[in-house]
Automatic annotation (TrEMBL), chain A:
The gene is UBE2T. The lineage of its organism: Eukaryota, Metazoa, Chordata, Craniata, Vertebrata. Residues 2-152 form the UBC core domain. Residues 150-198 are annotated as: Disordered. This is Ubiquitin-conjugating enzyme E2 T. It comes from the Eukaryota.
Automatic annotation (TrEMBL), chain B:
Belongs to the RNF12 family. It comes from Gopherus evgoodei. CDD domains: RING-H2_RNF12 (cd16674). This is RING-type E3 ubiquitin transferase. GO terms for biological process: negative regulation of transcription by RNA polymerase II; protein ubiquitination; random inactivation of X chromosome; regulation of neurogenesis; ubiquitin-dependent protein catabolic process.
Amino acid sequence: MQRTSRLKRELHLLTTEPPPGIMFWQNKDRMDDLRAQILGGANTPYDKGVFNLEVVVPERYPFEPPKIRFLTPIYHPNIDSAGRICLDVLRLPPKGAWRPSLNISTLLTSIQLLMSEPNPDDPLMADISSEYKYNKEVFIRNAKQWTEKYASQQKGASKTPDEEVTQSEASTPKESAISQKRKANDISRKGKKPCLDS
Amino acid sequence: MQILSHSFINMESSDSNDKANIDHSEAQRRSQLDRLEREEAFYHFVNNLNEEDYRLMRDNNLLGTPGEITEEELMRRLHQVKEGPPQQNGDENRGAESTEDVSNRDSIIDWLNSVRQTGNTTRSGQRGNQSWRAVSRTNPNSGDFRFSLEINVNRNNGNPNPEAENEQSVEPSNGEDLENSQSDTETPRSESPSVRQPGSDRSTSEELATEEASPLRGQRRARSRSPEQRRTRARTDRSRSPINPASETPRRSPHNMPSQTLDHSLVNESEGSSRTRQHVTLRQHTTGTEIASENAVLFSTPETRPAPPALGSSETNGSSESAAPGQRPPTIVLDLQVRRVRPGEYRQRDSIANRTRSRSQTPNNTVTYESERGGLRRTFSRSERAGVRTYVSTIRIPIRRIINTGFNETTSVAIQTILRQIMTGFGELNYYMYSDGDADPSGPAPNQNVDAPELQNGGDSGSTSSRSESTEGSSGEVYESSNEGGSTSARREGRNTRGSVTFEESGSLPFLSLAQFFLLNEDDDDQPRGLTKEQIDNLAWRNFGESDALKTCSVCITEYTEGNKLRKLPCSHEYHVHCIDRWLSENSTCPICRRAVLAAGNRESVV
């Protein structure tokens, strides 16, 4: 219903008070197709990784949750190879826990939390899940490998991050997010493996 | 709004930094500005609505999406809905009908969806030699839902002309059919107080599936039956109280008339075919603490009657029919009515006492499977007394066929097929009923009617039920006992027979899954779904005052401004009415704290 105005407010809030480790911007000019980046948490196998996410805002937002998926491959029990995320707040009740008082920022924070604390009891990837449960070292090794391979070096070739830089710089040049962002981008300059961008 | 424009400027600057897109972003900026303006107008409009108008708009889905329609459009809609809802319905019906003549399953689903949205639709289609039309109307005030389905069977499979004309004739007569269904709606209500003839009632409720085996028997019995009985069988009344045949006749005629015209147009091609009328009345009551669902399905079909065709036809279909009995193609009319009783709204007829009373009238509440060459009749009842839920369902399909001289087997077979298919549509539902039907107080009386084959011979007087005890017997005692017996046995019987019926022709008519879909979806719908309008309206509502501490609606992330209408949930969280109402129409928890908006018990009742 109130999608447009609400999204504007959300974008504004995100640019003024971005949650740590999360960036969020419009993809091109579209209001309903957003991009986000989550930085891998420090004490996780995703450390130093930069994970791109796609946030599609449905027409009925906020009465329906936005559809969020990882564009960057990630080795995680609750995220499948297509980037789909198994998380209750991403789904509508009664099965899910989405509610309109949540927003894209809180969802991304939840995803960030899910990355640091997988939920192997509700697995999307059974193999990874059992590995996480019973063979954690292997899991960590694999996850680190994937992070390094797909997420750690954000190659400059990737369009999305570049766009993001210009946009977020322009709108909130002094935001801390930007510096974080730049760091991430600097790393990615070395450019290794292209990620699964769009 | 300050925040808003501020954020907008941010975005604008970011957009314009993208050099390639300056023009584009400019255009986008404008459209977004327009949209924001309209959104503001929307809030303004909603703020100025009084509660009644607001509900009217909301319930008719006229509010739309903020920012997409202008305030003027909203005003126009409001005036429109205030001035002429009935006319609008008519338009919708007509419009829907003109475009729809596809009879595949998808279209049925579409139709159902559109029924859900608009409440009123008409669909028609053709499938093989059967053409059908479904008309549904929803009364937005009472929540009553009516659905009527009419099937025309063209007996002359080989001849394409009749089919075509069949279709044509069906289409234009839609308006009449609507009236037809409307009059049907009212008819059952007025019937309740009348007194039913014992004998006739019996005849319906106790015919058994076993009779189906012998067509001859059915015919014989039909012939022997008295007119009154036939008429009584043809009716189902909502409260399931006895019907007085005498009062029945005038009532029948009004809704038969409109469809009559329909049939007349077909007379030429369809000579010698039979006509079938079915009335299905389905009622569903949802009350605060219990659900009672009565499905009364009544199919009355002119029966194949070798000897006195004129008699049978006039009885069943009214005067106009007698003019050309048996010359019309079989037409099956199925009327379905669903009524939702608002929580807390206890009417006498919906009360437990009433239902119990009606249950004690075993003949009307029993599960009976009757078939003599296609005659079906079932009644189910179910109740969970301690478990709060009462579920009474009645499906009766007494069928009579009129055999005219030109009648052939194909027609009757076609009719039977359709009837079975219809029953199949209800099959799943019936299954539920069955499971509880055994607990019915009607008791484990011995089944006297299972021996129907033998009884058949005795059934000359026309009271089938009493055949077991006395051929002609319409005496009260006989009536009582046989009814009890009939109820249980018939239930058993029905269960057995149902299986075979289902397997035989399941799903061959696309719309037959309708009933199933519709009824079974009640559960599905209610589970993820939210509160009813009434429940939402019962929640507190107030105007945001200047003195209130500054707060923000967490649905739209907008600060309240003076004059905003807020709804306060039991958990004390407040939102814009239009924001929270929309959420609650599909969900039942507070968006902030996720507490159930309704008490658990109340919530249960919704399901």
